């Protein structure tokens, strides 16, 4: 069964450093989402792509976060500089007709 | 602003008890509704979805949900829970392409 791949699974970084996460969606899924999930809360949408275009990044802190999906396939989410409050699980999902398939996530700890 | 509310943060049941988890959404137009589950150590997976048609939808593992438009609700039900249903449950909505999740309900089933 096809799955969404994410790497790394865990990342520990120091405050003010740069960090990047990678996501490879299920083949053929045009829509890709990046979410941030803080413990005890639901996933919060950061950015949504349709192919290579951003369709929603209203909740993305653009002063420090950036996301790209250059060829409309895999995607990278970057944080620079990381802050203590960025510690969270970062989830990637892809979808066909709104039904989202999630990857395992990247657990980020900022020290 | 679009929002999804889950009333119960933590539910504890004994095996064979019936389950109902509440979910309310605030959208004025067309909305697609979902329930996702996250078992311990696993990633989010789809339980069931409602797009249109019969407001009572059936999902995997004996779960069902009822869409009540007049109440803006999409409650999840299961007539008899098992220990293996212990997990976190998230209600989600997509409207005009925008995805929003509730904060989740942790279900603990005691054997």
Task: Give an overview of the whole structure.
The complex is a heterodimer of chains A (111) and B (111). Chain A has 111 residues and is mainly β. Helices cover 0% and strands 52% of the residues of chain A. Chain A has no helices and 11 strands. The N and C termini of chain A lie far apart (37 Å). In chain B, the strands form 3 sheets. In chain B, strands 2, 5, 6, 10, 11 and 12 form a 6-stranded mixed β-sheet that branches. In chain B, strands 3-9-8-7 form a 4-stranded antiparallel β-sheet, with no helix packed on it. Chain B has a two-stranded antiparallel ribbon with strand order 1-4. Chain B has no helices and 12 strands. The radius of gyration of chain B is 13 Å and the shape is globular. Helix content of chain B is 0%, strand content 56%. Chain B has 111 residues and is mostly beta strands. The chains are: A mainly beta (111), B mainly beta (111).
In short:
Chain A has 111 residues and is mainly β.
Mind sketching the topology for me?
The complex is a heterodimer of chains A (111) and B (111).
Chain A (H helix, E strand, L loop, with lengths): L4 E3 L2 E4 L5 E6 L6 E7 L6 E7 L2 E4 L8 E4 L6 E5 L8 E9 L2 E4 L3 E5 L1
Parallel strand pairs in A: 2-11
Antiparallel strand pairs in A: 1-3, 3-8, 4-5, 4-9, 5-6, 7-8, 9-10, 9-11
Chain B lengths: L2 E4 L3 E5 L4 E3 L1 E4 L5 E7 L6 E6 L5 E3 L5 E5 L4 E6 L8 E9 L2 E4 L3 E6 L1
Parallel strand pairs in B: 2-12
Antiparallel strand pairs in B: 1-4, 3-9, 5-6, 5-10, 7-8, 8-9, 10-11, 10-12
